[in-house]
Design brief:
Blueprint (H helix, E strand, L loop, with lengths): L1 H48 L7 E3 L2 E9 L7 E10 L5 E8 L2 E12 L2 E6 L4 E3 L4 E4 L5 E7 L8 E8 L3 E10 L23 E3 L1
Parallel strand pairs: 2-11, 6-12
Antiparallel strand pairs: 1-2, 2-3, 3-8, 3-9, 4-7, 4-10, 5-6, 5-9, 10-11
């Protein structure tokens, strides 16, 4: 009787150990699967927050590419707009003006060093894009200025600007909003920019 009892006890112990081992294996497998799914979700979220290239716009030989802006802090009154303009036609063109529902006013500005001081001024006559040349609007250089903002810009947002050119006419351009500290459109590293000190400029009317 005692021998049978001991045998049964050993059998029960082995069975419990095997069951516990199986449960542990299933638990680890579930955790690994969850971590994998979490990693996939994080990767997808990262990809969603990265800038997606916007298709180039071509009008009358003028190519508009990489339009983007920066997210703004709550209460900000101004924001900047950046893009690349390539004139493949045989006629000079000029970016004259623009309008958008995110701000009251649109202006084109230039930042340049004058007497050792970085100054910003409005281009009252617009921004020339000579035939066969490319002009880049970027931080620390030429840029669009959205003045008297109607709402903050949030990373990942998009908005449309109706840009008016001398020859190409009115062209709707969709801008992508990047992070506050962004230095470029996010999907091209071929452009070099000046440091952040260039943004702290004296505004000259």
């Amino acid at each position: 009787m005692t021998a049978n009892t001991n045998a049964f006890t050993r059998f029960a112990a082995r069975t419990s150990f095997i069951a516990a081992l199986a449960l542990t294996t299933v638990a680890f497998a579930s955790m690994a699967h969850a971590e994998c799914e979490c990693s996939k979700d994080q990767e997808a979220a990262t990809q969603m927050t990265q800038a997606t290239p916007v298709a180039d716009i071509v009008v009358d030989g003028l190519t508009i590419s990489q339009p983007w802006s920066r997210a703004t802090a709550k209460g900000a009154r101004v924001a900047g707009g950046y893009l690349v303009l390539t004139n493949k036609s045989d006629k000079d063109d000029v970016l004259l003006s623009g309008s958008t529902d995110i701000s009251e006013k649109f202006e084109v500005h230039e930042m340049a060093v004058t007497d050792g001081v970085m100054r910003m001024r409005k281009l009252a006559d617009g921004l020339p894009i000579k035939a066969g040349e490319t002009v880049e609007l970027k931080p620390g250089s030429y840029h669009a200025m959205f003045i008297d903002m109607k709402r903050p810009l949030l990373e990942g947002d998009t908005f449309t600007v109706d840009m008016v050119f001398k020859n190409a006419g009115k062209v709707p351009v969709k801008f992508t909003v990047r992070g506050i500290g962004a230095r470029d459109a996010g999907h091209a590293e071929k452009h070099t920019h000046k440091n952040d000190k260039a943004e702290k400029a004296t505004h000259v009317n």
